[in-house]
Amino acid sequence: MMSLNYAFGFSILLLALVLLNIYFFYTLNTVDRKSPKFNIPSLKLDVTSSIVGDIYEYLNYLPSQYRNKNPKFAVIKKNLITSFNNTKNVNPTSVWLETTSWSNNNSLFPHENGAAGKILQMLQTSHIAFVDNAPKGTQLKLLFLIEGNQKVYFKPKRYDLSHTIQGSIYAGYDRHNSEVFAYYMAMILNFKWIPPSVIRKVHMDKDVLPVATNGLKSTILKKNDGVSCIYGKCFFCKANETVCPENNGELEGAAILYLDKQLKVYKSPWRRKVKATLSRKRLLNLINVAIFDFLIQNGDRHRYEVYGDQIILLDNGKGLGNPSVDELDILAPLYQCCSQSQLGDI
Ligand SMILES: *[C@@H]1O[C@H](CO)[C@@H](O)[C@H](O)[C@H]1NC(C)=O
Ligand SMILES: *[C@@H]1O[C@H](CO)[C@@H](O)[C@H](O)[C@H]1NC(C)=O
Ligand SMILES: *[C@@H]1O[C@H](CO)[C@@H](O)[C@H](O)[C@H]1NC(C)=O
Questions:
Q1: Which residues are annotated as a binding site?
Q2: Residue 261 has what pLDDT?
Q3: What are phi and psi for residue 96, nearest 5 degrees?
Q4: Taking a C-beta distance cutoff of 8 angstroms, is the pair 170, 299 a contact?
Q5: pTM (predicted TM-score)
Q6: Phi (first) and psi of residue 142, to 5 degrees
């Protein structure tokens, strides 16, 4: 029943999106330039492409109702802020007990009544009992055990925020900020199937080395200036590609809640380029995820993880590579589904 409702709801949403698109392009061509001009704030935007220029120009002539925020939005926004805003008197043991025993068909973790904020605060500030390599996966990351016996992944910062990744959509190391951005964006979009993630700074000599396992120590090099740098253990980890602390001795990274749940892993049918037999719910769920990945520009979801029958957004580090490029391919699950009538009567 749940999945049918979901599928139906999403079908309506898709239909609405398509209609909106048609309407949008129709109105774009018939923009009424006599209506009062509303000067939208200037954006740092590449308007060399004509379609972007047209959209930007059209925004100045939007009818007045589009300039007022929908009052329904205020309630949603308030609830969202409240879920992050209640971080007083946090008891680590009870936060992790609630989080790990959470069982719900609508979200991977508790988020209401300040639960999301408490989880982030614990991820960001809890005392670290030990640090090890997290060898699973292609990218360097560490595993922390924090107060309350909770495991946390730590994906270190590799690039400054302003760095632009050139080359293919898969190029470069993971971006730690993409993990954190993905979490907040998913919460805003009401897609609550993503592990909480927050920026954390740890001191290499005070927080990491004293509690590093021998395995981790064997992948740490001391540079000539006495600074300890980690090359870690992972598929692409190389001894000449280390992560070093900043001048103040701190390593910045994304602290991501470790998911101690039974997950099933599937190859994405779009990676295999075959039309697999998928349930309608799964296909709609994949399209949902494709739209999300398009927004963060993550072209790296070759496989996807499923908990129960819900795809979860695990590993969002390959987003935010190059702000000047929109990789439309990421939307293939959306545009191919409709052209190939895979969804039957939608
Ligand atoms: C969030 O918390 C701050 C500080 O406690 C408070 O000033 C602010 O009004 C709160 N915001 C909301 C939306 O609850
Ligand atoms: C989730 O949904 C299934 C049926 O789809 C139901 O049996 C189960 O009780 C639900 N679990 C929770 C925690 O609501
Ligand atoms: C590290 O060494 C490998 C060869 O082992 C090389 O391909 C790679 O480019 C080197 N990385 C850097 C940052 O120099």
A1: 139, 155, 174, 256-259, 305, 315
A2: 85
A3: -75, -30
A4: yes
A5: 0.78
A6: -110, 160
